[in-house]
Amino acid sequence: MSRSSAGRTIDAIWRIESPKLIAGLTRMVRDVGLAEDLAQDALVIALEKWPETGIPDNPGAWLMTTAKRRAIDLLRREKTRDRKYEELGRISDLYTEEDVDAKLDGEIGDDLLRLIFATCHPALSQEARVALTLRLLGGLTTEEIARAFLTAESTIAQRIVRAKKTLREARAAIEAPTGREPQERLVTVLEVIYLMFNEGYTASSGGQWFRPLLCQEALRLGRMLAELASSEPEVHGLVALMEIQASRFKARQNGQGEPILLMEQNRALWDQLLIRRGLAAIERARGLGRPLGPYALQASIAACHAQAIEAADTDWARIAALYEALSRVMPSPIVELNRAVAISMAFGPAYGLQLVDELEGVKALKEYHLLPSVRGDLLFKLDRRGEAAEAFRRAASLTRNERERELLLRRAAECEDPE
Fold first, then answer.
1. pLDDT tier at 104 (50, 70, 90 boundaries)?
2. What is the pLDDT of residues 172-181, one digit of tens each?
3. Cβ-count burial 119-137 (b if 16+ within 10 Å, e if not)
4. Distances (CA, A) of 197 to 138, 241, 306
5. pLDDT in tens, 52-102
6. Whether the Cβ atoms of residue 252 and residue 265 lie closer than 8 Å to each other
7. Whose CB among 132, 227, 237, 369 lies 3.0–4.6 Å from 295's, allowing a Cys bridge?
8. CA–CA distance, 256 with 56 (Å, rounded to integer)
9. How far lies 357's CA from each of 313, 350, 351, in Å?
10. Tens digits of per-residue pLDDT, 2-38?
């Protein structure tokens, strides 16, 4: 295997394994910053050795074993050997090469879920909780997190550094909280899982249109959380939303990896099992007898698409009404942009364009590529092709996803094609 090929393979493995690795190490050393450093050390060793020796059969276990040895060396240097060795001895069975994956896939005892609650510690601001958890569990770069937040990369980097320091100083317990704490942290935990799924569903950068493995990890965490907090409707709402969105994976790109937009997808490829699971989760949320929150409302919107056999059957008037309800419980310029799309589909592109134009001056959307993308689509439908081409080119200049940029540039070219 060439070093370049090995490097790409190792990068892919790291994306998958790093959250589990950091979660397990955090429980061992009780310091998320130190755990990330140890995990990075293991990655460096892998980058040095694997191109020569080949990828191990169980790369996650190899990385954990290597990082664990580094942790033991560190503990020895810090002269806390006796106390820490006793602790490591009690949990060392979690990290044998034979059963590491199975042990890391437990129920509420899952290290990943414990780490989510730990990084959502009350000592941190809400913004810091989300950024840190996305960094450690989602494996996202600071640049990707900044794109998800529509925030400067330097701001996110500083936020993550301060969060690690705060957790270390607070000696935050790496355990699933008890009593009232789960409910107090639940809002942020849900936000973290939601943003993790969104980054997987449409990658903010790189050459892939989406990252199914990141979506699957977010969905797995959401399902686990639904078991933990079964009386919380928003947990079921988020799970429903992710189940239905994930059902579209096979239809979202063609054989060349090019994006296929929702209204053009072959709905026969949608996963009906995931749709049924999503619809059942919505019913569980509604059955709890409380008003629907943001996630349950978004899941209801997704359900409207899932229940339409053909794109033309979509109940856009209901979707527009659901976005109106969503804008009341979760005011956001992005929600308003989506509502404008729904209104354009229900009542005509001119109505939608009027709403989109009103969003042009919103600061949070200034660098948001979907604003000019939506505007270009509406202008195209109104046969204002020159303006549409300009809008699509503007959108292409803002996105950092290569596949999405190619799609937007193709749409700009179609606007300029006299045919």
1. very low
2. 555 555 555 5
3. bbbeebeeebbbbbbbbbb
4. 9, 10, 18
5. 888 888 998 899 899 888 888 777 766 554 555 555 555 444 444 444 344
6. yes
7. 237
8. 30
9. 28, 11, 10
10. 666 777 888 888 877 888 888 888 878 878 888 888 9
The H or E element spanning position 205 is strand 205-206
As a whole-number percent, the residues of the chain with pLDDT over 90 amount to 46
Question: How many CA atoms lie less than 13 Å away from 43 in the CB half-sphere?
Answer: 21
**pLDDT at residue 295, as a whole number:** 97
Token pair of 49 as six digits = 């050795």
| Cβ–Cβ under 8 Å, residues 379 and 414 | no
Number of Cα atoms under 13 Å in the Cβ half of residue 243? 25
Taking the C-alpha atoms of residue 82 and residue 93, their distance in angstroms, rounded to an integer, is 18
Are 181 and 224 in contact by the 8 Å Cβ rule? The answer is no
Phi and psi (nearest 5°) for 330?
A: -145, 75
CB 64 within 8 A of CB 18: no
Looking up tokens 């042990």 gives: 103
